[in-house]
């Protein structure tokens, strides 16, 4: 394939139906609506404005924008122009974003109001001037090799320092496997995503994928309370609702009428505990479908409306994805054996590498396989059960214990709230499994269930109640932070 551009691919379906709804930003009183005609015009006008600034092909644009449509318009506009956007969270501090700028060496910084900017010599484009680009004449798409660099994202840093992850234009092609393998996505759908524009889960699942098929993307306006989401979904006819598991958990705490248009929900970013899935089914009559992915590769394992995941599993490898569970030497293991979850090097969604770090890139591969960092086991029918990150695995008396096994069980206790398990050091050379919870359930209830349903070596020795669990910027439980806060030595 030659002459390819990611942004052109995303906008192609909308160009055939320019008056259809592409985006609605849902506020409490009114919705800001974008047709596909308006979206395409804004993207290609932005591409023109960026080119007229004299940026060369492959120039890097550090995006410091808030939760508004300027974010995806700038992202696609840069890619359309042959430039390389680097989307970042507006929550990053001066120190954090300066470290990123030092690594990225941006050619331009796009600045939203009130958002920390790095200490950098790069020129700054303010949001007001950026918005003026949308009305400029439309640029053509910069086409080329689909293997060339399209964008850079940062990993969450849940298991180490955040890394600059480079992705090619062809990464968008891998997302086609999700349309049936996870979403059940159709052109007539109205996909509502509860995340901010700048989260990669929102950017991909909530925006790029609906636009690729010509569906409508519904995004709650900045400041929308989670408790308002069901009402917005009902008012605007959402057919699919996507969010982190914690968002669904909070919605279930509130009283709201049924959402007749809703077919199912999508979760990612953190393991879906079976209790939450059952509670959602009981409440709504619709299912939750989980997907597993990572910064280095788009989601590749999922349940779907056509093939729901067996309870406790993450689902099945999507069609066309080569996924395996390997031993330490890189050989595939038999069904039921625990090992390293891996994706084949040929996967179109796999990253190009870490920026300026070939050594660390190469260390992620074992022969022809990319090692995800997750422990897993595969059932005879192909269903994959995640057992935890390799660096999250706990050691109890010589036995390896997966946090998820404990977390899924304790989450069944009424009033448990959010649950996390990790290994903490209590004395030199002595570590124990600790369970953390945020709800109103008595410690005795948690202990009793663990004593009843877990082998002795798997049972937490410590129970620590917290007002909330520490999380990464993408909503995952930050077990590294838990260990750092509660290690005694």
What is the averaged pLDDT score? 93
The percentage helix is: 25-40%
The best one-word shape is: globular
* Strand segment tally: 26
Structural class: alpha/beta
Rg to the nearest angstrom?
22 Å
Q: Main sheet?
A: 9 strands, mixed
Proportion in β-strands: 25-35%
Low-confidence stretches: none
Between the first and last Cα atoms, what is the distance in angstroms?
56 Å
Record the strand order, biggest sheet: 2-1-10-9-11-12-13-14-15
By DSSP (H or I, 4+ residues per run), the number of helices equals: 15
3D structure, described in words:
This protein has 489 residues and is of the alpha/beta class. 29% of the residues lie in helices and 26% in strands. It contains 15 helices and 26 strands. Strands 2-1-10-9-11-12-13-14-15 form a 9-stranded mixed β-sheet, with helices on both faces. The chain starts with 5 loop residues before the first helix and ends with a helix.
Keywords:
single chain, 489 residues, alpha/beta, nine-stranded mixed β-sheet, five-stranded antiparallel β-sheet, 29% helix, globular
What's the gist of this structure?
The chain is α/β, with parallel strands linked by helices and 489 residues long.
Task: Record the SSE blueprint.
Blueprint: H1 6-16, E1 21-26, E2 31-35, H2 36-52, E3 60-64, H3 70-80, E4 84-87, H4 94-104, E5 108-111, E6 124-126, H5 127-133, E7 149-154, E8 164-168, H6 171-174, H7 176-183, E9 190-193, H8 200-213, E10 216-220, H9 229-235, E11 240-243, H10 245-252, E12 264-267, H11 274-284, E13 287-294, E14 297-302, E15 316-317, E16 323-326, E17 339-344, E18 353-354, H12 358-363, E19 365-366, E20 369-378, E21 384-389, E22 394-396, E23 399-401, H13 403-410, E24 419-427, E25 430-437, H14 443-453, E26 462-465, H15 479-486
Parallel strand pairs: 1-10, 3-4, 3-5, 5-6, 9-10, 9-11, 11-12, 12-13, 25-26
Antiparallel strand pairs: 1-2, 7-8, 8-18, 13-14, 14-15, 16-17, 17-20, 19-20, 20-21, 22-23, 24-25
Helix pairs in contact: 1-8, 2-3, 2-5, 10-11
């Amino acid at each position: 394939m030659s002459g390819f551009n990611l942004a052109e691919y995303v906008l192609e379906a909308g160009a055939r139906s320019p008056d259809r709804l592409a985006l609605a930003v849902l506020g409490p009183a009114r919705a800001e609506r974008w047709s596909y005609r308006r979206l395409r015009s804004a993207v290609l006008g932005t591409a023109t404005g960026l080119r007229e600034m004299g940026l060369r092909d492959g120039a890097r644009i550090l995006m410091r924008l808030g939760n508004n449509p300027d974010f995806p318009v700038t992202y696609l506009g840069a890619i359309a122009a042959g430039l390389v956007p680097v989307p970042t969270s507006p929550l990053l501090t001066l120190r954090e974003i300066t470290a990123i700028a030092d690594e990225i060496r941006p050619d331009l910084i796009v600045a939203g109001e009130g958002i920390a900017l790095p200490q950098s010599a790069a020129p700054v484009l303010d949001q007001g001037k950026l918005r003026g680009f949308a009305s400029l004449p439309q640029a053509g798409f910069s086409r080329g090799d689909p293997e060339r660099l399209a964008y850079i994202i940062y990993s969450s840093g849940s298991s180490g320092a955040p890394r600059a992850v480079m992705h090619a234009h062809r990464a968008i092609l891998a997302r086609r496997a999700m349309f049936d393998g996870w979403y059940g996505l159709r052109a007539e759908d109205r996909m509502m995503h509860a995340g901010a524009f700048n989260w990669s889960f929102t950017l991909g699942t909530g925006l790029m994928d609906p636009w690729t098929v010509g569906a409508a993307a519904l995004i709650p306006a900045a400041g929308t309370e989670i408790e308002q989401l069901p009402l917005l979904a009902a008012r605007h006819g959402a057919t699919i609702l996507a969010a982190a598991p914690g968002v669904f958990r909070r919605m279930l705490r509130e009283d709201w009428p049924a959402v007749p248009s809703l077919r199912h929900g999508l979760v990612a970013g953190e393991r879906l505990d079976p209790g939450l899935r059952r509670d959602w089914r009981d409440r709504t009559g619709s299912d939750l479908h989980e997907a597993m992915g990572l910064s280095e590769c788009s989601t590749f394992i999922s349940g779907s409306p056509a093939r729901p995941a067996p309870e406790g599993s993450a689902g099945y490898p999507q069609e066309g994805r080569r996924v395996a569970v390997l031993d330490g030497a890189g050989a595939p293991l038999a069904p039921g054996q625990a090992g390293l979850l891996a994706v084949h090097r040929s996967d179109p969604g796999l990253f190009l590498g870490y920026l300026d770090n070939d050594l660390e890139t190469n260390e992620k591969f074992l022969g022809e396989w990319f090692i995800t960092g997750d422990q897993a086991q595969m059932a005879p029918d192909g269903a994959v059960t995640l057992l935890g990150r390799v660096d999250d695995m706990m050691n109890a008396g010589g036995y390896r214990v997966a946090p998820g096994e404990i977390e899924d069980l304790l989450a069944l206790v009424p009033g448990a709230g959010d649950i996390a398990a990790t290994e903490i050091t209590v004395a030199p050379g002595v570590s124990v499994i600790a369970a953390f919870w945020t709800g109103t359930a008595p410690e005795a209830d948690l202990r009793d269930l663990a004593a009843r349903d877990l082998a002795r070596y798997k049972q937490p020795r410590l129970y620590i109640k917290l007002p909330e669990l520490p999380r990464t910027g993408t909503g995952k439980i930050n077990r590294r932070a838990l260990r750092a806060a509660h290690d005694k030595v």
